[in-house]
Amino acid sequence: MVKSFGSAFTALGLIGALAACASPGVNGARSSFAAGIKVDSANIGLATRAQVALEKGDTATAIDFAERAVAASPRDAGFRGLLANAYFAGGRFASAEAAYKDSLALIQNQPQLILKLALVTIAQGKTGEAMSQLDAARDYLDPSDYGLALALAGQPAAAVGVLEQAARQVGADARVRQNLALAHALVGDWTAARTIAAQDLPADQVDARIEQWMTFAKPARAADQVAALTGVTPAAADPGQPVRLALAPQETRTAAVEPVFVAPVAEPAPVLVAEAPAPAPAPVEYAYAPVSEPVMVAAPSEAAAIAAPVAAVAPKAHPKRAAAKADAAKPALSPRAASFSDSRPLVRKAAFPKAVRGDSKAVVQLGAYASRSFVGVAWTNFAKKYPALRGYNPATARFESAKGTVYRLSVQGFASDAAAREFCSALKSAGGSCFVRSIAGDAPVRLASL
User: Fold this and answer.
1) Which comes out higher in pLDDT, residue 17 or 411?
2) Angle, helices 77-89/93-106, rounded to nearest 10 degrees
3) CB under 8 Å to 177, separation ≥6 — which residues?
4) What are residue 224's phi and psi, to 5 degrees?
5) CATH for 351-449, options being 3.40.50.150, 3.30.70.1070, 3.10.50.40, 3.40.50.2300
6) Assigned architecture for domain 14-236+285-346
7) What single-letter DSSP state applies at residue 409?
8) CB pairs under 8 A, 24+ apart, for 157-160?
9) Helices marked H in 73-189 — which ranges?
């Protein structure tokens, strides 16, 4: 069950975040339509009951109802996100990781889920994987959230660089500065940590805060820091997400081999063959200096300047207001991250981008078939269901696999590799199936001869 942070930290409002993923009136229904599937009211009711249980701190009941909702509507990304949040609240980090990945396999552009995926990944000690996840959502995350997550992922020096910029922005608040102070503490620069923390804390509380951070900087387990900052108690045992709830291979597109096709029978409709995506590109090298390199330490005068805009807040005439301000001056995720408030607009952006033609070598593969004659039929069906495909050129390529010959169907003519990936992401969000690869013998589909 989720508990408070104690005197050192705040609960971040994360319980609200963990409970808000699949609201039946907004998020749940919206996520269902975004994934291309309309769920019935009974399944939304299961998600609602899971949400209510989460709000009450009853994670066991929340997990039960969320698992039932996912079982009833396995392709609803919102239900899977809710289940992941329930696992997270219950301290089941490995189960939460699996559920977050399932939700993101259905709808990729959910940065707040990526942030929470990174947190549960960090809690399991897999900091390298968490860094890749954070990098994928960096442009969409609040810099303070991103910086705090970097610090937890073992990159406090990089976090200092991100958070110093955030702290200098107009409107930066105590939360941002305290995140920066914590990052300095994790680097080992206790002078800067103390100077920045003191900007928002009464003088008699600074020493206690520094002592708490000294303990925080030396966790006994990988999960300790994430647990402290989220108020989640790690579960004594995590059996993992039930196998019955896992996405099928054709839904996640994670097959490790070339397609294993099903021989066609009497039906004229094409037989879609699951095929493995091309290997993912190597991760982009992180731009900030690693922890082992020299770290530039903010001098006391510079650290004080970061917090100067709010120096006049909380006048002495209002001790209750000053106490409330000090209580809020703790490292925390932003309310935006905690409320999932910006995941919905990003899902709406999953609409197909305007077609811009070019000569990129990237193609978006739609399927692979046991007979060349199926390619033209499949293209006609795809183009009718997803008119945006007509903005590009259909192509086919013969491929010899261990299981026999298959014929790939793809579209090409994108302006860049990034444009191809964006188009594929939008197609998946609309309920389609695809992946991006390089041209490999693809030739135009000759519809007249089919």
Assistant:
1) 411
2) 160
3) 167, 196, 197, 199, 200, 306, 307, 329
4) -60, -45
5) 3.30.70.1070
6) Alpha Horseshoe (1.25)
7) E
8) 157/187, 157/288, 157/289, 157/290, 157/291, 157/293, 157/295, 158/286, 158/288, 158/289, 158/290, 158/291, 159/183, 159/186, 160/184, 160/187, 160/295
9) 77-89, 93-106, 111-123, 127-137, 143-152, 156-167, 174-187
Cross-strand bridge partners of residue 395: 410, 444
Least confident of 31-35, 327-331, 353-357: 31-35
For residues 97 and 47, the answer to whether their CB atoms sit within 8 Å is no
pLDDT of residue 193: 94
Q: Specify the pTM.
A: 0.57
pLDDT-derived band at 11 (thresholds 50, 70, 90) equals very low
Average pLDDT over residues 203-227: 93
SS3 8: coil
Quote the Cα angle for 161-166-170, to 5°.
145
Average the pLDDT over each of 42-46, 49-53, 78-82, 99-103 and give the range with the smallest value. 42-46
Residue 447: the pLDDT is 56
- Please classify residue 430 by burial: count the beta carbons closer than 10 Å to its beta carbon, then call 0-12 exposed, 13-18 middle and 19+ buried: middle
- Residue carrying the six token digits 């330490």: 297
Which run of H or of E encompasses 195?
helix 190-197
Residue 220 in tokens = 């006994």
399, 368 in Cβ contact below 8 A? yes
- Listed by start position, the domains of the chain span 14-236+285-346, 351-449
Q: Which residue type does 362 have?
A: A
Residue % of the chain over a pLDDT of 90: 37
pLDDT band at 250 (very low <50, low <70, confident <90, very high): very low
